[in-house]
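Q: Entry one of two.
A:
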Amino acid sequence: MESKIRIALIPAYEPESLLINLLDKIREAGLTAIIVDDGSGLAFANIFKQTADLAVVLRHPRNCGKGRAIKTGLQYIEEHFSDGYTVVTMDADGQHQVSDAIKICEEAERQPDTLILGSRRMQENVPLRSRFGNTVTRFVYRISTKVDVHDTQTGLRAFSAALLPSLLDIPGERYEYEMNVLLEFARRKMPIEEVTISTIYIDNNAGSHFDTVKDSYRVYKEIIKFSASSLVSFLVDYSLYSLLIVLTGGFGVAVSLPLSNVIARIFSASVNYTINRKLVFKSEKSVGKSAIQYFILAAAILAGNTLVLGMLVELMNINRYGAKLLTELLFFIMSWLTQRFLIFRKKEADPVKVCQKG
């Protein structure tokens, strides 16, 4: 039987000596190790010197972020290995077992079109910060994509060579990259599967370089800003809708309801487009092209919004004001995904050149 090529890709920033033990176990298990030193500096040169006999070591001249380190490793793999391999990303802090890495590699080999996640089950020994962060991220991801992933923050992920082009194409240079991967896979309807792994935290996860405030903001910032923009637009929309319902009440529900909803939606959509283009997504796409795409989306949402609103009020006998709230919530997710990944999708500067400056 032909032996399978399995590659352990490890982004490392200021690692501890645990990394050497991890590499020994990886070699014993027959995996090829590739480490990306993400600008750790001279203080950690001795550790990386010890890894030279155990792994291929790639280096960033300065810290560029976990996402960029992963992509640097993937680019190296793409250039130096033939098709038919499986890659597993592992953290450098010793909190992933090699046996689990092999387990998810085997699953990726059975399902080469699927991203395999090593899923921790967040038991009692999990630090509160990690448990809380994963709960919040799981909730945000679920409402954004309608895809259920238990462990959105796991760094243990396996995939076949066929998925490398997609993974290299996904934006994000730091911790947000791993969330962007899940968002993009959901958007493209590419399969994701979880395999249960051991939950190990060393010294209460003290070795993690995740900055709770800054890196959480990077992960959630677009969703937060988009939610704020949508809230402003909703307040404009709902206020105008409520006023028009009162002013046109004499025309009857059949006329008053759709008329009020359409006028309010047109006005609030203009406000929403301006805020999203300039402040949320900071798009450089021409106003003409993005405006056409946005208002096509707005028209589709308006049609669906009006249809659903009418059904809730007339068929289900729900209060007109409550029905409006339910309808807006329903169409929020579709609007965010379409704007984020289609209308205002931006072309990033070449991150490799940016990272290598200075």
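Q: Entry two of two.
A:
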Amino acid sequence: MPKDRNHHARYQRQVLLEGWGPNAQQKLLQARILVIGAGGLGCPALQYLAAAGAGVLGIVDDDRVAITDLHRQILYTAADEGALKAEKAAEFLRRMNPLVNTESYCVRLTNANALSIIEKYQIIVDASDNFGTRYLVNDACVLLGKPLIYGSVSRFEGQVAVFNLPGAGHMAPGTGGVASSVATAGAASTNYRDLFPVPPDPGEVLSCSEAGVLGVVTGIIGSMQALEALKVATGVGSPLINKLLTYHALYNSFYEVSILPSGKISGPANAAAFREWPYGDGCGAPGKWHGAAGALAGEGLSGAGAPGFATVDAARFDELRAQEGVLVIDVREIGESPFIDQFEHTQLPLSRLRSTDPPYTGQTIVVFCQSGKRSLEAAGILAARNTVFQLEQGIMGWLALQS
């Protein structure tokens, strides 16, 4: 059967749509879309973009399939455990729709490779799961002039927005998709830094591995990202330009807020600056000594210029908690596992510490949490009145060394 006949049959139901038609479908068949992250958001986004007939789909992910992924990452099965996600996702999409070309990058997106990968595509879908990558992708898209479809999830809630695409309002069918909407629209473009100018401090926002996430929420948000990419590619409908759409699953509620361009350059101004920008591990790279705001202030305990705390490894943690008068605090939420009975400690959840005046003054304190992220924030709060140490890699890292 000829390829054009395959196209006609496969996409017939959407081509029949008033406001879509052959012109929009042809634009989509010519589109090159890059999806960064083949996890909870990337899987549904990739599946629907492939099903709709995107011409080329790029997939960036260096991670491997884990059993804990399978409740939300729907392109994989238990038999795929340990396999590279980008490769497995591409295999699935080729089986599902052989008419779509896939290009997989089994690498972590970094300052060194981001510009060269992203510049090959027309539309970028950010389905990543950490702040460092989100800021890196945003800044690369700003420098390269690429539309960015943003999505994120946590627990029962998700967000979607379209960044770096000038103009707002309805794009009539057949007006040209990406190229013409960027060229002809007059409104200023917003980007991720207009919404979140500064990355959060380490531990300020819990990851899905700490806070949890409902799998179907990633499916909803990832599908919305696919929809926004389709709108941008074809020029059909009204993309979420200069808007942030938030969805809450427990109440099935949506609300939309406007985003205004700041007019400021808070990211790298050019490619050279981008390649040197300190994106860190997702929220900046915390060092051994942290100032009150969580910024790196040096390697020693002097000259910080503001109250600070030290990060310690498991061996130093054991030494400190063995000393008389040292207070050990678990800042995890009540009921979190594993339960710790190997040493005496006090439990003061970070959520409570955030909302109340710290109850300690002039003490030597060691704080720990599950993985070492939340304890960074807790240490910063307590350091204003105390000498504070924070356990690197959290109690899970400490327990791993006990076996």
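A: Comment on entry two: Residues 333 and 351 are 8 Å apart (CA to CA). The chain has 16 helices and 15 strands.
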